Amino acid sequence: MLKRVRRDSSGLLSEEGLDIGLHHDILTMHGSPNESVGCVLSGTLNFNLVEPLKVKSISLKFIGKVKIDGSPEFARYEYELIQHKWVFLEASQDSYTMAPRSYSYDFELHLRGNLPESVVVNYGKIYYRLVAVVERPAFRFDIKKIKDVDIKRAPLFSTDSLLPPTMASGIWSENLAYHISIPDITYTIGESFPVVFNFCLLDPTFKIREVSLILREFILYNIEGSEPVSREYDISGTRRRCPGESELAWDGIIKLRIPRHTYSDCESKYITVLHKFFVEIELEEANGDIRVLHVLLRVGIQSAIQSELSQSPPMYQPITYSSGAPPPPYSCLDIVCA
Asked: Which InterPro entries does the record match to this protein (predicted)?
């Protein structure tokens, strides 16, 4: 059933009859920015009419931008990553009268593999969108439709599957031997990941009091012409007391939760998001003084969508190149110059 381009109570045209359909809701860059072959943005612009309409031109624009909001520490910044325009109906001195029917305009664009992925954080964002415009004659409002395009990178290129699991071990001040690890490199938002630890006291006059875990989020804003600005947030934490004060060794597993509001990892020259978990081991000396060992380890955090994409092999997307825009699907009887 055709949608009607209708007039509202103020006499303005609505965008109901204009729609942007994408072949893939999420575009995936497989591999690092230096290795990825990119992906293909493709879809159809649909324009449905149930009554004649005067039009000057029909176009579609794809834009990608970096926007960083201003704050007391850094200035507002905006940078254009990409822009491409398709013109489906060229503007002329006279307007066209489009007959009632459904019009479809296919579009396709190969996106280079080093484009940063979409991200929205506290003080900025990297975003991509399509803007369709049906230009009307003078004194008439244009019809516009905007659709956001989500670009993801999978797997996270900062966490190579060939690397060993995250771990740290050593001897601290000749008093404590420690080993801390997590079984995998990357976890998904909403999950809990296990932190495996092994502590062994080398000095029996010390006591292990407790171990604390904190998941910390780091966001780096890189603004051209300014020093990079870093923000860090403690987003989750837990602690556990040693079950026996006289124990010389303590083995265990503590799960650390990744909250739903966590941002997924993102690495680009403009905005970087990464995560580390902070391990704090508290020891008590014989005289009652407290000493603390701090260990900071990296953990990759991905969204549920990135997790799903990383489990699937890249889909083959044929890339076609055209010297010009595809011809608009109308006949001489459908559109006439006014």
From this structure: Arrestin-like_C, Arrestin_C-like, Arrestin_domain-protein, Ig_E-set
